[in-house]
# Entry
Amino acid sequence: MTQPPNEHALRVLVTTPYLEPGGAVDRTLREAGLETVFARRADREATGQALTECVRDVAGIIAGTDAFTAEVIEAAPGLKVFGRCGVGYDNIDVAAATRRGVAVTITPGSNRISVAEHVLALMLNCARRIPQNLAAVRDGGWTQESGRELHGTTLGVVGLGSIGKTVARAALALGMRVVAHDPRLDEDFLTETGVKARPLDGVLAAADFLTLHLSLDDTTRHLIDATALRRMKPGAYLINTARGGVVDEEALADAIEAGRLAGAALDVVEHEPLRSGSRLRALDSVLVTAHIGAATVEARARSGDMAARQVIDLLTGRTPDHLVNPEYAHTAHTAGAR
# Structure
């Protein structure tokens, strides 16, 4: 039975596109005594509302990939917490949130398996040119060009966090060698698995397949640029399921057109959706999926539930588990004391 609105309840705005009114996240928030308001992109387009209008009287936000700029955050005087569905938070101005005493939380591990499986799918599709073969058969052809086995090849992992480790374990199970670069390597994981740690240039030079698992910030933007691509093994493949901005797409197109790389598979691009004039669209050896790495029923359920519970924790006086900006609390305390 639907609970009647509680005019005294704190309001939580839901902008994550795959969360539904009446769904599990909605029920979890309402059972905690919170009022929910849905303003996903499609909802806003239907009503003509801007995001700045939707946030005016909310205490919490369950956020998808919408851009929560300083302007949007300033338009929400009662905002206390973001529950970001996912691990990337470059769409939220964390500095602006911290200045306002707003907590930003993420859901690490919730999409680990889904993204790792997508990486494997992309590698296999590259190695066996499955999309191209499907298209040829659909057009009446029957070509049987040689692909490549993953077994015996080297996977380079840049970013050995939760997802990177899961990809590495799966690659080892397929008989691949794995080399990895991360500024904060887990020595126990390396010892357990036999994954070899190398500097970035060493990973670039060794990898037959290079997979990226990095957050996007000033240190990683265009990390894979023309210089990095020249250091990659000739005939290698680049896989990116992290953030589009980690790769210089023009430099990538140059490298593939010049034949230095065999191809690439991208689940993320710098400007989503992929622009109609992007050179990547015209390259047969580039596969682009629409940021679906975490788009499984299971991962979305875990992520939504985790984000909701962290919002509930903060709004009921508890400290959430996965704070991006723990320093927010000082600002919030200072603001509350004035």
Summary: The longest helix spans residues 297-315. The chain has two domains: 11-109+296-337, 112-288. The mean pLDDT is 95. The chain has 14 helices and twelve strands.
